[in-house]
Design brief:
about 260 residues, globular, Rossmann fold, seven-stranded parallel β-sheet, binds nicotinamide-adenine-dinucleotide
């Protein structure tokens, strides 16, 4: 039933977004790939998906801190692919620093990319979903949309905001066949967290892998990082008809982090 639908995944040139793109493509879902890479690299990525899965693929490298580029991305995707049936707001960045020393430009960038971009993308994509009478919006939040951690003021503010946005949109779309959910992962093995691991390795003069284990086990009872594909499989389930009553939820996938 998902065959032939179109999914736009922001930040799908790396990590969770890229793994999710492979999971959806394997089901015959057409893709709008997106992320910060050159147009020619993006075209190569799109071509590799087309060859591997026989689906239609568009690539766009809109910088999500620019609202006009988000509007253009959504309009271009609908024009060239016919619709956006599934919108996965996944792109995100991180910076860690105490609140009192947090650089203003980093605060503004995290709020813009991790929170406001999702709002703008939803606002531009929603009329198309409503007129189709079907849609899936999945916001990739974090455990940090549910609980706090030191040195993550901007990230936690943005992710908590994304969870709030998810609830409101679910209420506004409940009668239109459009579900809206947030996924709240614990540690996922992607480039996003490498700086945090490197900082621990440097501070304690230990190997990268040892630092990685320390970072994971500091708060997450399940002592292993999740693979990005696991998040992709969870997203695929939320796109299915079986999940049509799941809406307005902030769903942890966090190795019992928030069970404590
Ligand atoms: P990643 O660094 O591997 O990928 C981030 C993606 O976002 C890339 O495709 C990048 O090009 C894109 N991006 C970054 N800035 C952008 C901008 N200004 N404009 C457009 N695109 C931009 O990271 P990831 O770990 O795969 O993260 C994906 C999402 O998952 C993020 O929202 C992150 O907060 C969330 N998350 C990650 C973890 C984790 O442990 N890795 C845990 C919970 C939640």
């Amino acid at each position: 039933m998902l065959n032939e639908k179109v999914a736009l995944i922001t930040g799908s040139t790396s990590g969770i977004g890229l793994a999710t793109a492979h999971v959806l493509a394997a089901q015959g879902i057409n893709l709008v790939l997106h992320g910060l890479m050159s147009a020619s690299q993006g075209q190569e990525l799109a071509d590799s998906f087309k060859a591997q899965y026989g689906i239609s693929v568009l690539f766009d490298n809109a910088d999500l801190s620019d609202v006009a580029r988000i509007e253009h991305l959504i309009k271009r995707a609908i024009e060239q692919m016919g619709s956006i049936d599934i919108l996965i707001n996944n792109a995100g960045i991180q910076h860690t620093e105490s609140a009192e020393n947090f650089p203003l430009d980093k605060w503004n960038a995290i709020i813009a990319i991790n929170l406001s971009a999702a709002f703008h993308a939803i606002q531009y994509a929603l009329p198309n979903m409503k007129s189709n009478g079907w849609g899936r919006i999945i916001n990739v939040a974090s455990v940090h949309g549910l609980v706090g951690s030191v040195n993550k003021s901007a990230y936690c503010a943005a992710k908590h905001g994304l969870v709030g946005l998810t609830k409101v949109l679910a209420l506004e779309c409940a009668e239109q066949g459009v579900t809206v959910n947030a996924i709240c992962p614990g540690w996922v093995d992607t480039p996003l967290i490498n700086d945090q691991i490197s900082a621990i390795a440097k501070q304690q003069n230990i190997a990268f892998e040892q630092a990685k284990y320390q970072l994971v086990t500091a708060k997450q009872p399940l002592p292993e990082m999740m693979a990005p594909e696991q998040i992709g499989e969870f997203i695929l389930f939320l796109c299915s008809e079986s999940a049509r009553s799941i809406t307005g939820s902030a769903l942890p996938m966090d190795g019992a982090w928030t069970a404590q």
